[in-house]
Amino acid sequence: MEKQKILIVDDEPITLQNLEHIMKKEGYEVVCVESGVKALKHLERTEFDLILTDLKMQPIDGLQVLERCKELYPDTEVILITAFATVDTAVEAMKKGAYHYISKPFKLDEVRYTVKKALEKRQLKKEVSELRKRVKHQENVPLIIGKSRGVLELQDTIRQIAPTDCNVLILGETGTGKELVARAIHFLSSRAENRFLAFNCGAFTEELLANELFGHEKEAFTGAKGIKKGLLESASGGTVFLDEIGDMPTSMQVKLLRVLQEKRLIRVGGTEEIPIDIRVIAATNRDLKKEVKQGRFRKDLYYRLNVITLKVPSLTERKEDIPLLAYHFLKRFSQNQGKKIEKISDQVMEMLMAYEFPGNVRELENIMERAVTLCQGDTIEQGHLPPDLQQLSLRVKRVGQRELLTLEEQEKDYIQWVLQKTGGNKTKAAEILGIDRVSLWRKLKKYELEED
User: Fold this and answer.
1) What's the half-sphere exposure (Cβ side, CA atoms, 13 Å) at 175?
2) What is the pTM of this model?
3) Do 390 and 402 fall into the same domain?
4) In angstroms, rounded to a whole number, what is the distance separating the alpha carbons of residues 286 and 292?
5) Residue at which a domain ends, from 82, 110, 136
6) Nearest to 424 by CA among 412, 435, 415
7) Crossing angle of helices 149-161/178-187, nearest 10°?
8) Which string of DSSP letters, residue by residue, matches 27-76?
9) Is 391 helix (H, G, I), strand (E, B) or coil?
10) What is the pLDDT of residues 68-105, one digit of tens each?
């Protein structure tokens, strides 16, 4: 255990020597000064666990040392020692935060005992403070809700890999909660006290990608009036989450690979290498192995990112979690809106359980937020659901054809129906589906649906 540090302040050399001898013999790290002025200089640059100070000193007395110490380090304990003990000075010292008051001539056992108790109090404060930090940290860990086998396995894997600091690749459909998983890994890692920065690789052009990830030097391009730190540099010591990594242009993949290999980057327009310390968590809804085979994603970058792979199940694969998630969102949005909505009707729950959720958890979240906003009573009813969900025939039979629809057939039918209801407005359709426009465009391509 690290030695506890004590600052002893007294203008009498013999008292100073005696106290130093006693405290060092007890195993403490000791610093001795013969004036209040020197004591304040030490306090400006060093935190001590305890201060033993004489009261009557010139020009800075023990009470002034006490006051300054409590301003800088409120948890540091202070014991005052004086040959001029009075009730008034003792009361004043205690009011200002002194731990105790010892009169001269003092007994060695009294000093040892008082110092020991003061340091025990100081240690207890430190432990309580650390415990509060841990509790606060645990409260901030993102909650991955579910009791399905896939979610329980995912939670277990997250707990195992979070402390390892290796790169992670998260796979899953849009809206499954890949960023939530990344945040959970970060908050359970040794980097939790540092920054978590998320970045969507599919939302920028190549030039903007380079600028956002690596930053730029002054006058690197027109309008660059000053130095700008990029995301990778800003997150040094923490975690970077690169979402939609499969959408990153090949030329940028080369630059990112170099940064991950060398742990250094060069800002746009610069020549100096800047060291960085980051953990990278990447995510995609694409089949990266297929992308590698087809030459759209670099094999070396894939293996650099793919140290650990996590698969986030779709909501269709974890239907037993729908009630838990629905009530979780109900509670959250009810609290946010100051409402007391406690129930979801059986009819609504049946509709949610039967629905295929192409937008996954994000779509369910949007549905519940809307329902809570519209609900005026204490129960979510069918009328609080989006019109498209109310009107949608969640049939599993198709007249004149084979009895059961596949999941893809049902998703295709639903996307067509939503586009029809929105008059072909893809932005509105994507919002209803709980997915972004890029994901909707991919699905239109996949099902060979008319885009105009």
Assistant:
1) 25
2) 0.60
3) no
4) 11
5) 136
6) 415
7) 40
8) T-EEEEESSHHHHHHHHHH---SEEEEESS-SSS-HHHHHHHHHHH-TT-
9) helix
10) 999 999 989 999 988 765 666 777 778 888 898 888 88
